[in-house]
Amino acid sequence: MLKSAEMMKTLALCTALVAVPGAVLAQESAAPSRDGGYGLGRTALPEEIAAWDIDIRPDGQGLPVGSGDVWTGEELFIEQCSACHGDFGEAVGRWPMLAGGFGTLEGEDPVKTIGSYWPYLSTVWDYVHRAMPYGAAQTLEDDEVYALVAYLMYVNNMVEDDFVLSNENFLEIAMPNEEAFFMDDRVETEFPLFTVEPCMENCAESVEITMRSMVLDVTPDTEEAAEPAPEEAAVEEAPAEPAADAEPAEAAPDPELVAAGERLFRQCSACHQIGDGAVNRTGPLLNGIHDAPVASREGFRYSPALAGAGDSGMVWDDETLAGYLADPRGFIRGNRMAFAGLRSQEDIEAMIAYLRAASTE
Question: What predicted TM-score, i.e. pTM, was given to this entire model?
Answer without folding.
Answer: 0.50
